[in-house]
Each structure stands twice: as structure tokens, then as C-alpha cells.
Design brief:
The complex is a heterodimer of chains A (581) and B (482).
Chain A (H helix, E strand, L loop, with lengths): L1 E5 L2 E5 L5 H7 L23 E4 L5 E3 L10 E3 L3 H15 L16 H8 L23 E3 L9 H9 L6 E3 L6 E3 L16 H5 L5 E3 L3 H9 L4 E6 L20 H10 L4 E4 H21 L6 E2 L4 H10 L13 H17 L6 E7 L4 H4 L17 E4 H10 L21 H4 L6 H15 L17 E8 L2 E9 L4 H14 L7 E5 L17 H17 L9 H11 L5 H7 L12
Parallel strand pairs in A: 1-5, 10-11, 10-13, 12-17, 13-14, 16-17
Antiparallel strand pairs in A: 1-2, 3-4, 3-5, 6-9, 7-8, 15-16
Chain B lengths: L15 H6 L4 H8 L3 H11 L11 H10 L6 E6 L8 H8 L1 H15 L3 E7 L3 H16 L15 E7 L8 H8 L23 E5 H13 L1 H5 L9 E8 L5 E6 L4 H8 L9 E6 L5 E4 L9 H6 L8 E6 L4 H15 L5 H18 L6 H16 L3 H5 L2 H9 L1 H8 L15 E3 L9 H5 L5 E2 L7 E2 L9 H5 L5 E3 L1
Parallel strand pairs in B: 1-2, 1-4, 2-3, 5-9
Antiparallel strand pairs in B: 5-6, 7-8, 7-9, 10-13, 11-12
Helix pairs in contact in B: 2-6, 2-9, 3-4, 5-6, 5-7, 6-9, 13-14, 13-17, 14-15
Classes of the chains: A alpha/beta (581), B alpha/beta (482).
Chain lengths: 581, 482
């Protein structure tokens, strides 16, 4: 352990702790704009500068490791003046039209301006003239607001390994943009939206489509049917002052109804359905010597990544659609027929923790319209639906509970854990075990696929055979594993893994690009616990036990991988160039 | 006294035999067969060699840090990304004596346990690159680079990496980023390159001139080197003397030589009989030295005390015709242009500072400006990530310190005493001197001068573009700047 004093307060910290973290332990917050606990110290904002007693050297608290005997000055009049000047300089290149900004009240720069009591702009204001980039339809870049902290670029390179965003130009002309100032839509961007959740200001945000939902609700012809993803229920409460991880499923059902939505379903049903199709596909590959390993296909960020960076592995991808797309297809076919509603009049909306879902609903042409109409008409992120709920004056915290509509709203614990890393794998194992042995697992909890390790590997005993599994989250972490799979494939060697779950975002969908701001590993942990709690409380914890799923197969689809199931619930993939025309 | 430039001009740089005949590669031989790595570091410590790139960090310490690292892979890097305006010490050394750098880098490799060196040199130096390539080829042929050097069992080689001419890539962390193929942007230190440098491996990085001293120290001993110069700084320093001086060029002088000796004894004084105003040392990171400090002995500490710095050795002499605000603006323009844009204090502060100076030279200055200059400059010094931003305000602060009256003249009186800032001056014809020869009105490119033949002429200030052609044309000194 290391002992040091911060502003005279003695603290003991572990080796490797930075001065910034040590100060937090001493109850002192050093201001930052470029620092983010997910990222390596970058040192661009200049606000965390500190002094050491008896030394003229200035240190950056974010990148300086605490050392034995250090005596750190984090706050004095000089540092206040310096920080204030840097803050005012930063503000001189940032619009002060906070009222019109998506991050109003949730902006880290704004928060510092409030703390420092900045009331006027002493320096000449110079704003970037680059135009907004709406080319992806999911992620909007607004360079005028960018403070060049570099978080988005670091996220895109180091956490996601996508390399869509770069610093372009230098000095005063530095901007954040795809290479050659191409539109983001032509870049390798996978629309995961991690740049959005890591941006300290409002320079990157989701394409707002809330109007689409309200117009559909106002249209008397339209029957609005909504589904919501597992991860939304443990995060949306944060927008209304609840703790991260608080399970708000039933309040959210009520809120959606009070917005005027006609039918409230749950993507967790779609998740259970995905397990049936994807699980049986895996069994089929194992039994019939199919292409191995099988890679999961629920994450649209990951799908975009593999289509760009590993086209050789497309045949390894499960052909099963994502839970959202399955839910959409079933809504406009099975449910529409059951409810006697013309599918043409159904407006199918998905509430997702994800920005990539906004483009997924059109990604694969005819497969996205397997019902004959677009299976999903609109995707709103957690943040967007929270805004709508607030704007309709709904007191979310105190809303009464209600239930999802039947029969495609019922879900098991397996469906709900889709929202965390390892969840799809765990749910699949629960059902695959049953599929291979005809017996239920004694303990449905598969702990080796849980947790925040970047790559989780292990073997699951299924009677006489071992199923070798791997789980990866954070797109950049997939590279090592994928390279290995590809190498084995090229060399004609059998792979050392059978089934791989990959999620683009660190922690899984609970930390998706559409989730409330302020996500870090502490928040991820709480949201994760929320979903596991939802699973534990479920009476049925395996997808194949879901009576509504059983009925869907019995009444409509036949069996998993049937022709009808293939038509409605499976898709295709095609290679995509990194830079599009 | 020549240590760094000992062979420049006297040997054929493309012939390794001439370098060897001049005593070259003796030091390497000594290091490989007669000295332990600790002996080498001890010798450098005795010599007291400090980094010639500008900051003056003790070279032996850098080597020692890297030597102590246990990583089996280490690197040695030569910083040849010379970029100060008017400076060409490193280029001349590499062009005139490339082996002196190769030999030193190999000595370092053996001392710290590295087997690969890189020379990062700007692509704008084609002759230096060519001579390095020739030297490296010859050294390999002679068994002085490559496998089993001189039969010692030590393997070491060097590669050249070309820079695209970004000034910030002279900053060591940015340089290493650039070698790795990334955008040349500094990284926060710690970790220092000595422990985590190129590709995360321990790396010694020294400037060309520092390297050029090493073999001489090994050959002649650390005590010999320490006997030259001042207690603060040992050895010699090469300066690129330019500006309003009679003899411009490279000079190598012992540390402790005064500026007066350099400007007047070596440089031959100010050209065209003009009056000395100031010398800028340390390039865009340094400051001005005025008449009152001309007798300060030049060493690392001495220059810092009077508000400038050694820098890499640019030395630009100014005379009475140079406007000090304009000079500050020139250097700031350079650093603003060369800022990588990563950190806010440098990126925004530098540009804001420049805009204030621009405003002052345009005649729109106000009393608040000086306060704002000092406020921004301080934030840049404390808050910038690398030395480029930390030192960028120096030319402004030092000119402000030594020439406050000249700033006031611009801001309050809206006058430029040296007549440089066009917006603050007007050309007028003194009627008592003008004989009406019409020469000026015929030369004026915009037709701003009118008048009858043999009668005093007049300049229309609204039309005049202040190009000065009339003043140069007039044979009767009738045209004056106000």
C-alpha cells in the first residue's frame, strides 16, 4: 500500500492508483473533462493539474501514479485561476446555447461552469463551422459542440476497435471526424453509440425519432404495439432519480400505456424465442458437423463489425435474428392474426438500450420485412423514451405496476439476462442442456460466463460431452479470439471453442449506447445485478419452459428451425467494405 | 573549440575511413572491450553532459533509467526532428559527420541493453538522410553495425524513420507515437520513455547534438569534458546565429561564453550599422535577451534566470527596426500553427493569445489586453500537456517584460515605434524636404501620391497601402513614417 497526503489529508491507496483516484478517496474531487474511468488517461483537458509540495513541477492527476510520501496540493488560488481560465477558454470554443442542447442539465462542461460560477465569457468566442453529420440515421455528430477531449476517439479505437472516428487537422483546426472528413455513414462506424455515452458534452447524440412514435399514436388508423428490451428496465429509472439497477419493468409498461400505446409487449419474449432458434441451430451444427464455432447474432453493433472486419466468419454467425427482430416478425404475423388486426395497420416500436438497433430494422432487406411489412417500424433508445415520458408529465417513480399484454409479453429469467454480458450464453446453455439431455439443469446459474472479465472462457458439462464456450464484450476485445478462430479455420484445424457470445458494448446491453448517461463500471455492476435479480425472481428460468413460446410453436411455427421459423426468424449476412460508397 | 562539429567540413562524410582516421569508432571499441556499462554511465556522469534538445536533462540519468529496466527489449532513438525557425545545428551535424551519431547510438545500445536504434529525421532533410544511409551501409560493411559488432557478440542495428515535418514531433512522446505510426501527439508523462517508450518498451531518446558529444567523452574522459564550460553546464553548445548580424552561421562555443562575445566578436555586430535591440534564444519556446543581459554567461541555468532558455540553439538577432510585438506574434504564430491540437490550454489558449496580439498590432488593443495575455499565458504554462504549449507564451511574456513601453505604445498610443505594424503607421511627405521630382508618385503602385511638378507632393492616407516603395525611391529623405 502507498501512503500520501492530499490537501493535508492522509490516504492509503493500492499501488497503481492515480493521484486523481487517491484524491477521490480523500473526499476531494479534482475537475476533469477528458478523464473517464473506462479509458486510459489522455491528458487533453488540462483541468486536473495539481502541485506537489516543495516541487515546481506540475502534475496531471489523471495520469500520475500515487507514490509513497507524496504531498499533493489539489486546490489553491493559483490552481483555481488556472482551471477557471482553461474552463473559460474551453467555453470560448463551445456554444453557450445550453437550453437547445440534448445534454442540457447532464453536461459535464455545464456542471463545471456552474461550479466555477462563470457568468460571462471573457475571451473571444470562436465556434467551429463544421455542419452536423446525420448520415448514419442513428448517431449524430455535432462538431460545433466538440471540445476535443478525445474520449469518443479513444472509445472508438481502444474499447471498440472500430476506428471510425479520428482527430483531423491540427492545432486550432483540430476536429473529431471520420477519416478524410467523410460522413460517418460512409465510415466503418458500427453505430454502437459508445461515443455518445462517453462524450462529456452534447457533441454526439442519438438521432431523435420520438416524433415518429407520437405521430403513430395520434393516427387513429394505427395500432401501436411496443416491445422493450431487457436492459431498458434496469436503467430508465436513472432518468427519474432512481438508483441504477432498479427493476422498473411494470412501471414502464404503465408509462408506455399512458403515452397512448395500444399494446405493450416485451422483447424478453423475443429473447426466449431467439434461444429456441439459436439453441437448436447450435445443436444442429454439433450433431451434423456444421461450421463451428457458432457465433451469436443478437448484437447489431457486432454484426456490423463482423461484416466489415471478419467477412470470412459470416458462416459462423447464427442465422437467428435478434430478439427485437423476432419479436417484430411475430407481432405482425402470429399476434396480428390472433388479434384479428391487419398487419398493415400495426405500427411496431422497439424501446432499446442501443443506437445500432435504429439501423438494424432495415439492414437485411426482405428479412427485415418477413411479415410482408417492416417487422419493426421504429426504434427509440432508453433516453428518448424517458424524454417522452417526462414530457407527458408522468411521475415515473410513482406509477402503478401493470402487466405486459399477452401472449407475446410473457418471459422467463433466461430472456431477461440477455441484457448483460454472458446472458445469451447462459440462457442458451440452459436450453441446450435440455435439448441434448432431455433433462433440466440442476442449477440454472452458469457463473463462468458472468462477470466483467473481458474474455470469459470455459467448458460446460453436458452429460458425456463438454461444450466449450467463450463470451466477449467490448468490441475491441473480440479481436484476439476472432483472429484465433480465423487462423484455425484457414489452417483447417478444428476450433477450440464451440459457441461464442459477442456483445459490442462493455458489460453488454445494460451499458449500450442508448442508455442513460454516466455509465461506468459501478453503474454497469448495479444494472447487471438488477437483471440477475429479475432472473432469480422468475418462476421459469429457461426459455423452453415459457408457455407462450411453447404455444407459439404448437399453434403457429411447428418446431424450432421449421420452414416457417426460418422464414420469419432467420436472416442472412453479407460482407461490407470498411468505407462505403 | 569544436566537439560536436569536430569533423564537419574536415572529413568526407560519405567515407567511413576518414571518420576512422580522425579517431572515429575508437570509443565504441573501448566500450565494447574495455568498459562495463556502468563505467560508461559513470563517465557520462562525470562529464555532466546535459541533453542538447532544450531541456538539459542529465544524459547519464536517462541512460541509467533505461539500463535498470528489466525488459529484454529496449530501444535507442535519435531525435533529429529539428524544427525551430532558423535552426540547423542537427542537420549540419548529420550532413557533416553522420558516424558520430551512429557510433554514440551503438555505445548507448550496448550500455543500456538495446539491440535496435531508430533515427527520427524530418523528410525535409534529404542530404542528411542520404549521408546517414551511406554511413549506415558502410558501418555494416565494416562490422560496426549489425550482428556481432567487432566480434564482441553484441548485435545492434539502426533504422531511419522519416517525419512529415510537424514541429511537435520533436517532443519525445509525440515522436515515439509518430514512429509507431500514430498521429504525432504527446502523451502524458509519467510513464517516461526511459521506462515505457517505443511500443511500451524502455527507450533512450537523445537529440543529435547530445549524441555527437558521446564518443568524445568516452575517448577523452568525462573529466576532460567537465573542464569545459560552467559549473552548471559542461562542454560546448552549437548555435545557429541569424538575423540582423554581419556574420551569420553555425557557431560552437564553450558553455559560459557571453552573448556579447557571440554577437559582437563572432557575429561581427549588427549589420548596416543599426542599433542592437535583442536576441531571441530558444526559438519559439525561448525569450528575448536585451542589452542589459548581454554579458550573462550562456548556460542552461543562466538563460532561464533571464527569462529565456537554451532550447536547441537558435539565436536570432534583432535590431532597432524590429517591432517587438510583431516578433512575439511571429513566434506565437509558429507555435499556434504547429500545435497538435490535443490539449485545450495550448490549442485554444495559443490561438486566443495570438488573436489578442493581432488585435494590438491592428491598433484595436485596449487596457484589458495585457491582463488577459498574462492570464492565458499562465494557464498555458501550467495546463499544457507538453513543452510546446508550456513554453509557447515565453516569447510574449519575455518581450512584455523587457519592452513594456513598446506594448503600451501599440495599445494606448496606437503607434508602432519601429514602424513595422502597418495599421499603426502612416507615410507622410515632409514638405520642407520634398522638391516635387515626382519620382515617388510614378512608383506608387496604387496612385496614392499626388502633386504638381516641383511642388511638394502629398500622400492620400486612405489609398496608401504602406508598401514603402515611395520611401525607398525618394532621394531626399522627404518621406517619413509617423
Amino acid at each position: 500500500m502507498i501512503h500520501l497526503t492530499i490537501q493535508g489529508i492522509e490516504v492509503e491507496v493500492a499501488e497503481g492508483t492515480t493521484v486523481l483516484e487517491a484524491a477521490r478517496k480523500a473526499g476531494i474531487r479534482i475537475p476533469t473533462l477528458c478523464y473517464h474511468p473506462d479509458l486510459k488517461p489522455f491528458g487533453s483537458c488540462g483541468l486536473c493539474v495539481c502541485k506537489q509540495e516543495g516541487s515546481a513541477k506540475i502534475i496531471r492527476a489523471c495520469s500520475t501514479p500515487a507514490a509513497e510520501g507524496m504531498r499533493i496540493i489539489t486546490h489553491d488560488q493559483d490552481l483555481y485561476n488556472v482551471r477557471r481560465t482553461i474552463l473559460e477558454l474551453t467555453m470560448s470554443t463551445h456554444p453557450s446555447s445550453c437550453l437547445l442542447c440534448t445534454r442540457n442539465n447532464k453536461c459535464e462542461l455545464q456542471k463545471l461552469a456552474i461550479e466555477y460560477g462563470v457568468r460571462e465569457q471573457p475571451f473571444e468566442v470562436r465556434l467551429a463551422e463544421d455542419r452536423k453529420d446525420r448520415s448514419t440515421g442513428a448517431v449524430v455528430l455535432d462538431p460545433e459542440k466538440c471540445i476535443k477531449c478525445g474520449r469518443c476517439i479513444q472509445v472508438c479505437h481502444e474499447l471498440q476497435g472500430v476506428y471510425a472516428l479520428e482527430f483531423i487537422g491540427r492545432g486550432d483546426h483540430t476536429t473529431m471526424s471520420p477519416a478524410a472528413k467523410l460522413p460517418l455513414g460512409e465510415s466503418p462506424c458500427i453505430k454502437c453509440g459508445q461515443c455518445i455515452t462517453h462524450c462529456p458534452v452534447g457533441a454526439i447524440y442519438e438521432q431523435d425519432q420520438t416524433d415518429g412514435l407520437m405521430q403513430a399514436i395520434a393516427d387513429p388508423q394505427k395500432v401501436v404495439a411496443v416491445q422493450m428490451a431487457p436492459a431498458v428496465r434496469v436503467a430508465i429509472g436513472e432518468e427519474f432519480g432512481l438508483k441504477p439497477g432498479e427493476v422498473t419493468t411494470k412501471k414502464l409498461y404503465t408509462a408506455l400505456r399512458r403515452l397512448g400505446i395500444d399494446y405493450v409487449f416485451d422483447t424478453n419474449f423475443g429473447a426466449d424465442l431467439t434461444i429456441m432458434e439459436e439453441g437448436y441451430e447450435l445443436l444442429d451444427r454439433i450433431k451434423n458437423n456444421g461450421v463451428m464455432p457458432q457465433l451469436t447474432s443478437c448484437c447489431p453493433g457486432w454484426i456490423a463489425y463482423v461484416e466489415e472486419y471478419y467477412p470470412e466468419l459470416l458462416e459462423n454467425l447464427s442465422s437467428a435474428k435478434s430478439p427485437m427482430m423476432m419479436q417484430g416478425a411475430v407481432t405482425k404475423t402470429y399476434w396480428a392474426e390472433k388479434a384479428g388486426i391487419d398487419k398493415k395497420n400495426i405500427y411496431s416500436v422497439a424501446i432499446m438500450p442501443c443506437t445500432a438497433k435504429k439501423v438494424e430494422i432495415r439492414r437485411d432487406g426482405e428479412h427485415a420485412a418477413s411479415s410482408g411489412e417492416w417487422d419493426v417500424d421504429l426504434v427509440l433508445t432508453t433516453r428518448e423514451i424517458a424524454r417522452l415520458i417526462a414530457s407527458r408529465g408522468l411521475d415515473f417513480k410513482n406509477l402503478p405496476d401493470s402487466e405486459a399484454d399477452s401472449p407475446i409479453g410473457e418471459y422467463t429469467g433466461a430472456g431477461t439476462i440477455f441484457g448483460v454480458t454472458g446472458g445469451v450464453m447462459e440462457a442458451a446453455i440452459r436450453t441446450a442442456y435440455y435439448g441434448l439431455t432431455g433433462k433440466e439443469l440442476a442449477d440454472p446459474e452458469i457463473h463462468l460466463v458472468r462477470g466483467m472479465d473481458e474474455v470469459k472462457r470455459g467448458e460446460v458439462d453436458v452429460e458425456s460431452r463438454k461444450v466449450r464456450v467463450a463470451v466477449v464484450h467490448g468490441m475491441a476485445n473480440a479481436k484476439g479470439l476472432l483472429d484465433r478462430i480465423l487462423e484455425d479455420k484457414k489452417a483447417g484445424r478444428p476450433s477450440d471453442v464451440d459457441f461464442v457470445e459477442i456483445m459490442a458494448c462493455r458489460g453488454g446491453c445494460i451499458a449500450g449506447g442508448g442508455q442513460p448517461y454516466g455509465t461506468d463500471d459501478d453503474v454497469r455492476k448495479e444494472r447487471t445485478e438488477g437483471l440477475y435479480e429479475d432472473d432469480e425472481k422468475s418462476v421459469k428460468r429457461c426459455s423452453h419452459q415459457n408457455p407462450s413460446i411453447q404455444k407459439l410453436y404448437a399453434d403457429y411455427l411447428g418446431e424450432p428451425l421449421s420452414e416457417k421459423a426460418h422464414h420469419l426468424l432467420h436472416t442472412e449476412y453479407k460482407p461490407s467494405p470498411l468505407y462505403k460508397d | 573549440m569544436r566537439i560536436v562539429l569536430r569533423n564537419c567540413g574536415s572529413i568526407d562524410p560519405e567515407n567511413i575511413d576518414e571518420y576512422i582516421a580522425a579517431g572515429g569508432y575508437k570509443a565504441l571499441e573501448k566500450v565494447l572491450f574495455e568498459m562495463t556499462p556502468d563505467d560508461v554511465i559513470g563517465e557520462l556522469k562525470t562529464a555532466g553532459l546535459r541533453g542538447r534538445g532544450g531541456a538539459g536533462f542529465p544524459t547519464w540519468m536517462k541512460w541509467n533509467f533505461t539500463k535498470q529496466e528489466t525488459d529484454p527489449v529496449k530501444y535507442v532513438v535519435c531525435n533529429a526532428d529539428e524544427g525551430d525557425p532558423g535552426a540547423y545545428m542537427d542537420r549540419s551535424t548529420l550532413e557533416g559527420d553522420p558516424h558520430s551519431v551512429l557510433e554514440a547510438m551503438t555505445i548507448c545500445g550496448h550500455t543500456v541493453g538495446a539491440h535496435q536504434g531508430f533515427i527520427y529525421i524530418r523528410a525535409e532533410y534529404p542530404l542528411a538522410i542520404h549521408r546517414l544511409e551511406v554511413a549506415m551501409k558502410q558501418a555494416r560493411e565494416y562490422g560496426l553495425l549489425g550482428k556481432d559488432i567487432l566480434g564482441s557478440g553484441f548485435d545492434y542495428d539502426i533504422e531511419i524513420r522519416l517525419g512529415a515535418g510537424a514541429f511537435v514531433c520533436g517532443e519525445e512522446t509525440a515522436l515515439l507515437q509518430s514512429i509507431e505510426g500514430h498521429r504525432g501527439m504527446p502523451k502524458p508523462r509519467p510513464p517516461f520513455p526511459a521506462s515505457k517508450g517505443l511500443w511500451g518498451k524502455p527507450t533512450v531518446i537523445n537529440n543529435v547534438e547530445t549524441w555527437a558529444n558521446v564518443a568524445q567523452i568516452i575517448t577523452n574522459g568525462g573529466e576532460w569534458f567537465a573542464s569545459i564550460g560552467t559549473p552548471d553546464s559542461h562542454g560546448t553548445k552549437v548555435f545557429a546565429l541569424t538575423g540582423k548580424i554581419c556574420n551569420s552561421g553555425l557557431v560552437e562555443v564553450p558553455m559560459g561564453t557571453t552573448l556579447r562575445e557571440i554577437v559582437y566578436d563572432i557575429g561581427g555586430g549588427i549589420a548596416h550599422g543599426k542599433k542592437f535591440k535583442a536576441v531571441q534564444t530558444g526559438g519559439p519556446s525561448g525569450g528575448v535577451i536585451t542589452e542589459e543581459n548581454l554579458d550573462t554567461p550562456i548556460d542552461f541555468g543562466g538563460l532561464q534566470k533571464i527569462g529565456s532558455m537554451m532550447g536547441s540553439g537558435g539565436m536570432i538577432v534583432m535590431d532597432e527596426d524590429d517591432c517587438i510585438v510583431d516578433v512575439a506574434k511571429f513566434y506565437l504564430n509558429f507555435t499556434v500553427d504547429e500545435s497538435c491540437g490535443k490539449c485545450a490550454p495550448c490549442r485554444i489558449g495559443g490561438k486566443s493569445l495570438y488573436n489578442i496580439l493581432e488585435k494590438i498590432t491592428q491598433g484595436h488593443g485596449d487596457e484589458n489586453d495585457i491582463k488577459q495575455i498574462e492570464q492565458i499565458a499562465h494557464a498555458m504554462k501550467i495546463g499544457s500537456l507538453c513543452a510546446l504549449g508550456q513554453t509557447a507564451p515565453n516569447p510574449v511574456l519575455s518581450t512584455l517584460h523587457y519592452f513594456p513601453e513598446e506594448y503600451k505604445a501599440h495599445i494606448i498610443d496606437k503607434k508602432c515605434p519601429s514602424g513595422k505594424c502597418k495599421k499603426l503607421i502612416s507615410y507622410e511627405i515632409n514638405p520642407s524636404k520634398c522638391i516635387g521630382c515626382t519620382a515617388c508618385s510614378r512608383k506608387c503602385p496604387v496612385g496614392a501620391i499626388s502633386g504638381e511638378v516641383k511642388k511638394p507632393h502629398k500622400i492620400n492616407g486612405n489609398v496608401c497601402i504602406k508598401c514603402g516603395v515611395c520611401k525607398d525611391t525618394c532621394k531626399f529623405s522627404a518621406i517619413e513614417i509617423h
